[in-house]
């Protein structure tokens, strides 16, 4: 079924309120989750509710965190997320980076003591919407990616998002895990009892495996590249770069050693990094956007390997999803609907996604 | 034969002087080329002399370029390289970024109207040597990497280098092309008439090929990932990100459209991007380095897939090479020696690498 954004908004909000989450946190967190769903990043929107509930039940989540700017300069800042979900402090951090960028040409803000922040791309895009280049990275609460030649996970899927503003075209927006594939792809294969590609995941001895359920059990993803022969050391290096920016720079917790040394740690202390750069500090007004449009146009016009398969530019598929889903709603599978219902029932929140297959109608009533 | 750095320095210097390159440009360019050779990055040191000679003979190189700071703010600057080799303006640009970073916590400098700058990692490391995080990216004079689903090269091998300072360990230093493999690997296979791996390169129809000489002819490398199933769209996106930072931000030339629209362009107008970030703007003195050492130690101590194959951390292999080659010289193959001899003879420079197999002895005379 397709659920319109506004109804889904009310559903998530009802759950967060039942959890006792603070008011302004509810609003911003729901918005960032829906931004992911609207852009087609299904794994990082409402589908994460069950994970957040799991954090909450395990006592790993502060629901009314105090967000603090620990220190700052005209172009840098360190933010403490207070142990809650990552969306709210991350929006504040990216906004702060954007403000500093507007005033000085560049701004960087790192966040510590945070948690899962949803889709990295939606933060990078906030900078592009203001005419700036945006970078967003995050570490992850648990390790799931195995360095080249290793046999245990040391990094999270450590995503990198980079956005840049064009004019005629959609903003460029790369949003990628530094693993070969995101966990979602393996989960999906396990659900459909299909094998996964060789090179996506390993067992706990460092051997490539193709059985999806086993891969979910071990959670030993390969870094981008997949195998040493295909340069997995590059994906491993990118994962390490993201960890340095997101964990060591703000002083968050390195999950691989935390899980060993302090498995009962009160909070996961996940970290993020946000950077905004103003192209007009380098170019005359509008030149950057014109040149970027020129690059994107050239990519669209290039020779194809298969006439029926266009070359895509990062961000445009998500923009198309946004247009489609803003109008026709967000597809919610029966499994996801059940999961949302369970989360709602467990905290006594109303379940709102019920009125027949076309729940879009319902939303327009309110 | 092994040639000591000092003799190789004199050899390259003699050639640059015969070309009529300006004095301070000679010194810095040679230093950056040797820094690559000493760190074991053989493809980006003295081996590039023949390419630079080719640029010179084609009239694509200004030998006495005027390097200008076009505009700057306390934390940003745009540098014009004057149409010469990239090493000299890049050292100036990274130094400027480091100065700004020392004063304000962060500095970014973009360079336009430049050319090949050697190994990206040696610039990023300059920041790490000052205690800062360093990022260096560059576009390339000609396209050689094919976007996912495409059948013609649109980006250069667009490298990303990222360095960060540790204390007990070598500085972390990732230095990677955004293609699956660097061109050098395919060149080497062609030289030894060996096949290349499927997924490294394509023909001009977008089909994977394994014949190395054919791959060199087409110069259609795959982006990191190799195939769509192994997420080559991520490598493609990283290549685009590097192009945006290195070409669109400074206003350099996008090679894929330049070669079509202006094949006779007087200069290649390659661009670079340099960023330095001071960890002490975020953390207390020494905390960042301690946490990075902790991460590196954990990577060294992790469970291995093969007991005899240690897990490596980016930058340490290069540091080991540096220690070895500073003492025992830089290995120069007979083919490379011949190429250097040809370049020297063509411009009337003396050829200095001649005195027997152990030329190291010669260098100590001076």
Radius of gyration computed on alpha carbons of chain A = 21 Å
Strand arrangement within the widest β-sheet of chain A reads 2-3-4-10-5-6-7
Overall number of strands of chain A: 11
> How many individual helices of chain A?
13
Please state the overall shape of chain A, judged from the principal axes of the Cα atoms. globular
Low-confidence stretches of chain A: 357-366
Strand content of chain A: 5-15%
> Largest interface here, residues on each chain?
A-B, 82 and 81 residues
The rounded distance between the terminal residues' Cα atoms of chain A is: 19 Å
Main pleated-sheet profile of chain A: 7 strands, mixed
Multimer state: homodimer
Average pLDDT figure of chain A:
95
Helix and strand succession of chain A?
Answer: EHHHEEHEHEEEHEEHHHEHHEHH
The amount of helix of chain A comes to: 40-55%
Structural class of chain A: alpha+beta
Account of the protein in words:
Two copies of one chain form a homodimer. Chain A has 366 residues and is an alpha+beta fold. Helices cover 42% and strands 14% of the residues of chain A. Chain A is built from 13 helices and eleven strands. The first copy, chain A, has a seven-stranded mixed sheet, with helices on both faces. In chain A, helix 4 links the parallel strand 3 and strand 4. Chain A is globular and about 55 Å long. In chain A, 57% of the residues are buried. Residues 357-366 of chain A have low confidence and may be disordered. Chains A and B meet through strand 4, strand 6, strand 7, helix 8 and helix 10 of A and strand 4, strand 7, helix 8 and helix 10 of B.
């Amino acid at each position: 079924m397709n659920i319109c954004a506004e109804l889904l908004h009310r559903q998530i909000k009802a759950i967060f309120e039942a959890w006792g989450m603070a008011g302004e946190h509810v609003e911003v967190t729901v918005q960032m989750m829906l931004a992911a769903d609207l852009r087609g990043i299904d794994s990082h929107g409402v589908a994460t509710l069950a994970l957040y509930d799991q954090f909450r039940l395990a006592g790993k989540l502060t629901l009314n965190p105090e967000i603090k700017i620990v220190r700052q300069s005209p172009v840098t800042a360190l933010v403490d997320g207070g142990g809650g979900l990552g969306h709210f402090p991350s929006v504040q951090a990216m906004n702060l980076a954007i403000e500093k960028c507007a005033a000085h040409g560049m701004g960087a803000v790192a966040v510590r003591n945070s948690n899962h922040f949803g889709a990295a791309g939606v933060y990078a895009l906030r900078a592009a919407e203001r005419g700036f280049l945006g970078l967003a990275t995050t570490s992850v609460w648990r390790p799931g990616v195995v360095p080249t030649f290793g046999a245990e996970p040391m990094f999270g899927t450590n995503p990198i998002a980079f956005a840049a503003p064009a004019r005629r075209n959609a903003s460029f927006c790369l949003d990628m895990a530094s693993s070969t594939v995101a966990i979602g792809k393996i989960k999906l294969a396990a659900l459909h009892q299909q094998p996964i590609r060789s090179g996506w995941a390993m067992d706990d001895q460092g051997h490539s495996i193709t059985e999806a359920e086993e891969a979910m059990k071990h959670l030993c993803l390969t870094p981008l590249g997949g195998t040493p022969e295909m340069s997995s050391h590059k994906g491993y290096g990118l994962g390490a770069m993201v960890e340095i920016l997101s964990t060591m720079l703000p002083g968050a917790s390195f999950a691989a050693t935390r899980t060993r040394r302090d498995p009962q740690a009160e909070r996961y202390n996940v970290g993020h990094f946000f950077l905004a750069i103003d192209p007009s500090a380098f170019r005359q007004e509008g030149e950057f956007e014109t040149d970027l449009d020129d690059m994107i146009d050239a990519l669209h016009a290039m020779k194809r390997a298969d006439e029926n398969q266009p070359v895509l530019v990062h961000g445009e598929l998500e923009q198309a999803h946004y247009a489609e889903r803003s109008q026709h709603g967000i597809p919610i599978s029966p499994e996801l609907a059940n999961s949302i219902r369970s989360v709602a029932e467990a905290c006594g929140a109303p379940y709102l996604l019920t009125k027949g297959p076309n729940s879009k109608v319902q939303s327009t009533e309110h």
